[in-house]
Amino acid sequence: MLCAAVANAHNQKSPVVWEPSIDMDGQLFPSFIIATSTLRLEKFNQTKNAYYLGDATGHIGINVTSPSDDTKIRVEVRISDIAEPSGFEGLLKEGGKHYKVFPKIAYRYAALLAIKQPMPVSATFTLYVNDLLVGTKTKVIAVRSINDCVYQMVDNNDKVARVPWMYTAYVNENHPWIDGLLRDALNTGVVTRFIGYQGTSDDVYRQVFAIWNVFQRRGFRYSSITTPTGESGRVFSQYVRFFEDSIRTSQANCVDGSVMFASVLRRIGIDPVLVIVPGHCFLGFYVDRAQTDFRCIETTAMGNTNLSQYSEENTIVGAIAHLFGRETRNQASWRTFIAALNIGADEFNRYHDSFENAALGCYLLEIGASRKLGISPINH
User: Fold this and answer.
1) What tens digit of pLDDT does each residue of 227-286 get?
2) Are 268 and 194 in contact (CB under 8 A)?
3) Phi/psi of residue 236, each to 5°?
4) Could you give phi then psi for residue 140, rounded to 5 degrees?
5) Residue 350, Cβ neighbours under 10 Å: how many?
């Protein structure tokens, strides 16, 4: 007994080896933090790691080597500007083992949503072992823009983690501007109301076309901007515009246009899907509630026609144009809509057999399924 007591006392006095740990290549991505804040981890069937303590989706914590069995620890983390003081208390069960400890950080989500440019923050880590202060260390962390969407990560063991579902967080079916768009769509006369799947398949196509039409009337053009606000050799991200940014500028790249369109479709009760293939994204949607009829549309084709050059229906100018065989505004829009559906079908069929293999970079991201997993929309 005396020998054991001496041994334990010796272990308690030995220096505790520890250091701050910031995952994702030492950076914070506000979009990832918000999107995973309500994640239902049980849906992912993750294997529990006995040497990982605290928040299962945490990115900020410490690495520590336990000095002895059943070592009591307390970790405190303070991050300037973007979080409240946070902490974790627990036991390191096995001496000599390396543990990762991630407190549940009390983020200030409104502050994270407001970050449009990369910025540094200071994070202070304090460690207590068996109620005794071990020390305090400070790290400067780079915080990326809320627009930077992570889609792939490589850990320190060179293991690749693909997270394409992050794109679904930019689909915002709750955006208040959608109501105005729907009102404008009704004013075109294409549909008299939005009813989701309550009508026929033709009714679904007409509703999707009504949204297409109103975007074209706003003069949407393709913009290839995708460059993120920072660089990393281990975390790969893309700049994605928010709904209001696309609407305000009438510009969208393939991802921007697809998440914008998907936001409106989900709002009116039509199930959208983001279709990801190498180097490109386009929009899919189900024509029926049972999800047996699937169609795709190439959203970048919205800018192929300038509707301002065509006359409006039910006007004298429109009637005269029709007499001379010219298309009206809605007719020209319908023609491009059908062309975009054909392009989408060709693109989908080209990669049809690849969607079963994630390693090929092809994904069908159903927005409804993402919401069931707890992936939150970034309500910006």
Assistant:
1) 777 778 899 999 999 999 999 998 889 999 999 999 999 999 999 999 999 999 999 999
2) yes
3) -110, 130
4) -95, 125
5) 11
Tokens of 53: 């303590």
Amino acid at 83: A
Q: Which three-class secondary structure state does DSSP give residue 206?
A: helix
Could you tell me where the beta strands, DSSP code E, fall in the chain?
Answer: 18-22, 27-28, 52-54, 60-65, 71-79, 83-84, 86-92, 98-102, 106-107, 119-129, 132-143, 148-154, 160-162, 221-222, 235-239, 251-252, 272-277, 280-286, 294-297, 363-366
Sign, CA dihedral 204-209-212-213, equals negative
Question: Which pLDDT belongs to residue 308?
Answer: 80
With a cut of 70, say whether residue 19 has pLDDT above it.
yes
Residue 268: what residue type? I
CA proximity to 149, closest of 129, 170, 126, 171: 170
Rounded distance between C-alpha atoms, residue 154 and residue 233, angstroms: 8
Question: Which pLDDT does position 194 carry in this prediction?
Answer: 98
Residues 6+ positions from 100 with CB-CB distance below 8 Å: 21, 51, 52, 53, 61, 62, 63
The domain 2-145 having CATH identifier 1.10.287: the answer here is: no
CA distance 329 to 352: 34
Sheet with 235-239, strands from edge to edge, namely 160-162, 148-154, 235-239
Are β-strands 60-65 and 18-22 bridged in parallel, bridged antiparallel, or unpaired?
antiparallel
Q: How far does CA 148 lie from the centroid of its chain?
A: 9
- β-pair partners for 222: 252
Q: How many CB atoms lie within 10 A of CB 15?
A: 9
* Cβ neighbour number for residue 232 with a 10 Å cutoff: 19
| Single-letter amino acid, residue 166 | M
User: For the chain, which residues make up each domain, given as ranges?
Assistant: 2-145, 165-372
pLDDT band at 4 (very low <50, low <70, confident <90, very high): very low
Beta strands 160-162; 148-154: pairing state: antiparallel
CA proximity to 147, closest of 224, 243, 275: 243
CA distances (Å), 75 to each of 14, 86, 115, 143, 369, in order?
19, 8, 27, 22, 36
Residue pair 142/122 in contact (Cβ under 8 Å)? The answer is: no
What CA–CA distance (Å, rounded) separates 116 from 293?
Answer: 39
